[in-house]
Amino acid sequence: MKKILILGAGIYQVPLINKCKEMGHFVIVSSIPGNYPGFACADKVYYENTVDKDAILKIAKDEEIDAILTTGTDVAVSTIGYVNDKLGLCGVTFESAEWVTNKLHMKEQLQNQGVRTAKFHKAYNVDDALKACDDIGFPVVFKCVDMSGSRGIMRIDSPEEAEKAFQYSMSATRCDYILVEKFLEGHEIGVDGYIGENGSFIVPHDKLICGNGATNVPVGHIFPYCGSDQLTNDITEQINSAAKALKLKKVFFNSDVMICGNEAYIIEISARCGATCIPELISIHYGVDYYGSMVSNALGENVSFPDKPICAAIGELLRSDKSGIITSISYNEAIQYADQISFDYQIGDSVNAFRVGPDRIGQVIVHGDDLQKANMNLENAKKHICVDIRSEQET
Questions:
Q1: Is a pLDDT exceeding 90 seen at residue 176?
Q2: Following CA atoms 50, 55, 59, 62 in sequence, which dihedral angle do they give, to the nearest 10 degrees?
Q3: Cβ burial, residue 196 (10 Å; 0-12/13-18/19+)
Q4: DSSP readout, 46-68?
Q5: Cα 248 vs. chain centroid, distance in angstroms?
Q6: Looking at residue 392, what is its pLDDT?
Q7: CA angle, 212 as apex, 208 and 217 as ends, to 5°?
């Protein structure tokens, strides 16, 4: 039995915790206190902030862990790199982790190494941001540099919007600056996979998108991605170049990529698996145990992946257009169409109107022999999923 420390106890870490236990390992979870479902799944819990590197390192040493990992969040990645370096564990290094968890540092590395990415500037105040806009040209995106899940990101199209956007991004960050980046006109996709020592597993996929008034937020993913061979090769080349620039090795990654014509631009890349159903979808799409591969890799074991997918797969977040209390949930008739339907909340719980990824209330995952069949299964499943929510005004 190996001891594995997982950082984070949220809904995206629960399947990873359960997979570790299924594989016969002793699972330790660390997170700040809160109503997080991962606490109940763990063998042992520490209520420590995952960004407190020295506190997490002490836990790792005291527990004599064999591996440390997370999934679905960037917040803990720097700490994982720190512990890996100190204890000689497998996975992302601290140097790489520091680059990929700060969007500015990441883009500086990409630019310096000739990886295709959007033009950008650093801004400490609104005047800096406006100067950046003048140089880059509208439209631009204001981003906080240290958050994931689409938090602190806003597109602006004119100088009049700069003050509001700057305050919006600053409200979400722990840094004293933001990133001003050229808004690329194109088609945004996701790319996930694994960077090994002797090769890579690169899986592009399309996104289901929902606007929140500030930016577009991914609410689902579609496998396979149906780009041309030329474009798929360019995506692969840019991802491999980004991994080299950021010194990523033996690391699972998640990347946002903008397709402009026949060229791929790296928006960002992180040293952990993506969220929003991605591990489950890759598992179905390729017939692999993706969570199990993450665990094995963290333990220093060799992992491998098939060359070709076996079916199409789609996942979508369940979400609400209003905040309130869940009064009923029904979905039994939907099960015949879906591989998985899960809810993050129960009847009586409060939920938020959807704006960013963590506002999800559940997820539905389907597959099919091809995309047409998978889409049909998704639409049929959604027709039979009913979540009633009573707003405060209705009480």
A1: yes
A2: 170
A3: middle
A4: E---TT-HHHHHHHHHHHT-SEE
A5: 17
A6: 67
A7: 35
Q: In this structure, is residue 329 part of a structural domain?
A: yes
Kindly report the length of the chain: 395
Report d(CA 16, CA 362) in Å as an integer.
Answer: 17
For residues 154 and 227, membership in a common domain is answered with: no
* Phi and psi angles of residue 204, each rounded to the nearest 5 degrees, phi first: -70, 150
More confident residue, 89 or 198: 89
**Residue range 156-170: mean pLDDT, rounded:** 95
Q: At what angle do helices 103-112 and 229-245 cross, to 10 degrees?
A: 110
Q: Give the integer Cα–Cα distance in Å for 317 and 363.
A: 4
CATH of the domain at 379: 3.30.470.20
Residue with token string 């509001």: 164
Nearest to 190 by CA among 359, 338, 352, 72: 72
The reply to whether 110 falls in a domain is no
User: What does pTM read for this prediction?
Assistant: 0.92
- Of 53, 86, 65, the C-alpha closest to 20 is 65
